[in-house]
Amino acid sequence: MSVPSWLYHRILQHGGNIPFHQYVDWVLHDQDYGAYGAGSLQIGLKGDFVTSPSLGSSFAYLLALQMEQWLNSFGEEPLSLIETGPGEGHLALQLAQILYNNAPNFRNRLEIILIEPNKGMSQRQKNYLAKSPLPLRWSSLEQLSRNPVKGIILAHEVIDAFAVERLTYYKNDWYRQRVALIPDRMNKKEGKLMLIRGERWDYCIPNAEGLGLHKKNTFPMKSGWCTELHTETLQWLNSCKKSLSQGYLLVIDYFIEASHYYSARYSQGTIMTYKDQIARIDPLQDPGKLDITCHICLETLLSAAAKGGWSFIGQALQGEALLALGLAEQLYWSKNRDKKNINSIINERENILRLVNPLGLGNFRWLVFNSNMKHSYPLFLNEPNGSSL
């Protein structure tokens, strides 16, 4: 496979091979060449992959009900809704419009803060969000930690875009996987990338403890098995905690329990790539042009959150959460309104159903944490009211 010139020379400068973690960080977040850093990826029905907010406003409408409940648990002070990794800005604009219209008591004291480290994406967001009815600003978690705010941090499909370490199992030990550049003997300016076994993994690095990876023979593993570790999660959670003097953290992503994550079903890990709505499994293909994502071990996040000082409130599958917030009523409303534009009504209903499809977006999980709050029990953790799809 072809290696872009910038990556070819950069790997050569680092000795011809680099940790998989470094490779993912470069091809996703390099400010000039990364898929997110340079802003080459497009999110939405006509883009490279879809997210819940890109399917219409139903997701944001229901999520806003939960946001409003939490915002009402504060006093009369100024509040912030912080979205990390805002993508195209779909969700930020939808929430701004819905909260402005449906919760007028927050119009003069609620701001939206966007955490976007990739300049290519932030420029697109600024153009898209120009008509936000609520004040908004871009910042970093480090900047916020110097002047913490009160409010909510929303992390929707953020952690799955973190650079990860990839480990491979060999003769009763785990080894760090590396990406090696194999030059073409006939053309020194050409080459290909290959995954190789690197150094033995240091089990003292955070997130391995407690998952069984630091123990030998905890399940029948075979040489060649691979898995991922989200080694950036603890630092990210610590930064989120320092950014809030009081508030909530809602993480929405695709989680798997450790007992399944580190099993034969995922013996080659959970890495997936996306481009033009097509899913693939080769992370070395078209570097800088594809989204690279992987699932998250649930116990890894919960352990890191506890170490970071977050109080875990609870979790629910996205399908369950949206039903508890009234998705069935949304579907009923779309089905029974004026039928002047039957095609748009059919598309809207299909998109609503995609939000709860257990084989797709409905299998995402909502995890909520709080910091220094006497929290109200989240609406999305209640039982659905009995309405049926």
UniProtKB/TrEMBL annotation:
State the Gene Ontology BP annotations. methylation
Q: What compartments host this protein?
A: Mitochondrion
Q: Which residues cross the membrane?
A: none
Keywords, alphabetical: Methyltransferase, Mitochondrion, Plastid, Transferase
> Which Enzyme Commission number(s) are listed?
2.1.1.320
- Taken from the record, one Pfam family name reads Methyltransf_28
Biological function: Arginine methyltransferase involved in the assembly or stability of mitochondrial NADH:ubiquinone oxidoreductase complex (complex I).
- State what protein this is by name: Protein arginine methyltransferase NDUFAF7
| Species annotation | Paulinella micropora
Question: Could you read off the lineage of the organism from its UniProt record?
Answer: Eukaryota, Sar, Rhizaria, Cercozoa, Imbricatea
List the gene name.
MYN1_Chr_23
